[in-house]
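Researcher: I'm preparing a figure for a lab meeting and need a structural model of a single chain. I don't have an experimental structure, so a prediction will have to do for now. The sequence is pasted below. Please return the structure as tokens so I can convert it later.
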Amino acid sequence: MQETLNERNSGIDIDLQGLLRAYLRRWWVILICMILGASIALGITYRFVTPMYQAKISIYVNNNKGDETKEYLSSSDLSASKSLVNTYISIAKSERVLEKISKNLNGEYSVGQLNKAIKASQLNDTEIFCIYVLHEDPKEAARIANAAADVAPGEISQIIDGTSAEVVDTAKVPTGRYSPSYERMTLLGGALGVFLAVILLTLHYLSDTRIKNENDLTMLYPLPVLGRIPNFDITSSENSYGYYTTTREEESNK
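Model: Understood. Here is the structure written out token by token.
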């Protein structure tokens, strides 16, 4: 008997309908855990996570000097510019450029601080790349980004001969935070609460080894049931045979 009970607890044979009924019967536990999880996640995020703001500039680059005039740009010119964008990004993030940005900012930020705050990426496979600056102060984020806009184009043109770079958009002071997302953290906290509630209810269901009905008995002993104890308190419409077998839900409500 002990071996059979251990097999049942190990999950070899689980009554999925009974497990679903256990979830539905304890729906309020799941709801409470979801609310608690969402509230805790929101509270921790609001209290301990510093809001960050992002400012952005965009720079257009091509493989012609700015003082050179062309009647048109060929497809080879555009392809060459696109292929060199990653090179331009590397230059914009180089220590040489960051040192000049730091100097333009009166040395308020070190090269290491600027390297952590500044990111750059190509814009939709075009000849334009964007420089992003993350800072806890929105005004400082825009200030650093605009300092990069003052330095990066000239350095790119100077380092790579035969190219030019031009600022398309300067940075504006961001009005909304970039991170964290309170809505996303609240949803994740609620989902985690539901997950933990389901795990606890499942463990509670599997740890209950009491025999409550005929199915539980046949799971333990592969023997035929010879009879049942009649229940004379129920009507024949509820059970045409006049017998009564307690269910897991009824037993737990006693």
